[in-house]
Amino acid sequence: MSDIEYDEKVKTKSRKKLKPPQSYKVLLHNDNYTTMEFVVFILETVFSKSLSEATRIMLHVHK
Prior knowledge:
CATH 3.30.1390.10; 63 residues; single chain; 0% strand
């Protein structure tokens, strides 16, 4: 057998700990172009609001 010595070193990368995303604010603006139905649809699909809650929010902004 040969007399070979191995110098084994393990390199590790330190990883940054991920934090949950910060909260955000969404501003709704009443305009003359976006339909009320579309606003309700977006509130339901993107923001997981129920139909009644999405409608309530849309009507509040529409005033």
